[in-house]
Amino acid sequence: MRSVxxxxxxxxxxRAALALVALVGAGIALAGAPAGAQAALAGLQDDRISVDPExxxxxxxxxxxxxxxRVSRVDLLWSEAAPTRPARxxxxxxxxxxxxxxxxxxxxxxxxxxxxxFTIYSSPAWAAGGRRAPAGRQVxxxxxxxxxxxxxxxxxxxxxxxxxxxPATGRPIPQVRHLEMWxxxxxxxxxxxxxxxxxxxxxxxxxxxxYPAVHxxxxxxxxxxxxxxxxxxxDRNGIxxxxxxxxxxxxxxxxxxxxxxxxxxxxxLQATRAIPAWRTLPVLLDALERARPRTPFLITEAGxxxxxxxxxxxxxxxxxxxxxxxxxFALPAVRTRVALVVWYQMEDNPNWPGGLxxxxxxxxxxxxxxxSVARRGPIPVVLRR
Length: 385
What we know:
- There is one protein chain.
- This protein is an alpha/beta fold.
- It has a single domain (14-383), classed as Alpha-Beta Barrel (TIM Barrel), CATH 3.20.20.
- The protein contains 11 helices and 10 strands.
- The chain has helices at 14-25, 57-66, 78-81, 100-111, 146-159, 200-217, 241-251, 281-291, 318-330, 332-337, 365-374, and strands at residues 41-45, 71-77, 115-121, 178-181, 192-193, 196-197, 222-228, 257-262, 297-302, 340-344.
- An 8-stranded parallel beta sheet has the order 1-10-9-8-7-4-3-2. A two-stranded antiparallel ribbon has the order 5-6.
- Helix 7 (241-251) links the parallel strand 7 and strand 8.
- Helix 2 (57-66) runs parallel beside helix 4 (100-111).
- The radius of gyration is 19 Å and the shape is globular.
C-alpha cells in the first residue's frame, strides 16, 4: 500500500519549457494520432493482493480478471518474504524464505490469463544494517547491501523461472518473467540513506549487482529498472524523475526495460511544464532512446485520485478520472512509444483514492473506461511469456 504520495508536480523547469516546443510538432492532440498505431497495453495493480489475508488472493484475482486486464503489477516485499537472514540466500528453497503468498498470487493470476510483474522492494532489517521500517509503516525504505539484494532477486528469478517445483507440495511454480528493481528509489519514502533520499549511486550499485544475478536465476527474465517516482524537483526527500533517469543513463546500468511513474496534477491534454506529465513524457522517452535505443519504456504506475488525502491534495471528479484514463491511452506518445501503462490502483484505500472501484467495491465510471482499453492490441514483445 502506498502511503508516500506527497509530491505534487511543481512547475518552473526551464528545460521543460523547451521540451514543450518540441511536443507541439510531435502531434500531442488526439487528432494527431497516427492511423493504425498500436496502443500501449493497459495493466492494473491491486495493492491489496500483497497485504490482505492470503485466503482472499483468489477473490482479488477474480476482480482483476473482471477488469479485463492482461497484466498486473504486484508488490513483492523482500522484508516479508525474508524476515530472517537465509543461510543460502540464492536458494529459493532456503527455510528462511516465505514465498507462499507470492506463489499463490502467481498461480491465481496465471490461471486467469494475467501476466504478473513482481516489483521487489522493502529491505529486511538484517540487509540494511539493522535499520527497520519507520513506526507505523510496513515498507522499510532503508537502503540494503547490494550483494544481499542481488542474492534475493536471484532466488526470486529462480523460483519463478517456470522450472522450479515447490518441494513442499510437489507442484510447479508458475513463471513470472518480469521483475522490477525496487519501487520509486528516487523518493526517501522508498529508498533512503539516513534521513535523506538515497543518492542515485546507491540504486546504481544495487542494479549492477542485481542484473546479472536475475539472469543467473532465469536467463529469460526481463529486468525492469527505474520505477521512478513522479517528482519534478530535487531536495532531501527526493530526486526529480528527469535527473534520476539522466543519472541512471549516464551510469550505463544494464536493463531490459525502463519504467517510470506518472501522476501529474494536469490532465493528459493540459499544457504543463512539469516532468513527468503526459504532455512532457517525450522528454523522458527521447532521453532513453538517445542513450539506449529500442529499450522498452513502461509506465508501471499512473492514475488520478478522486479525493484529497493527507498525502495528496490534488483530486479530480469520478467522471474526469474516466475521461482522463481514456485520453491517456489515446495519446500519440503513449500509443506509439510506450509498451505498458499500469493503472494504480484497482480499489481505493484511505491513503490513495485512485482506484477504479470505491472502497467496498462499487464501480466508478473509470472501471468501464478501463475495460474499454484493456483488450486493445496484441501483447508487446517485452511483455510476452
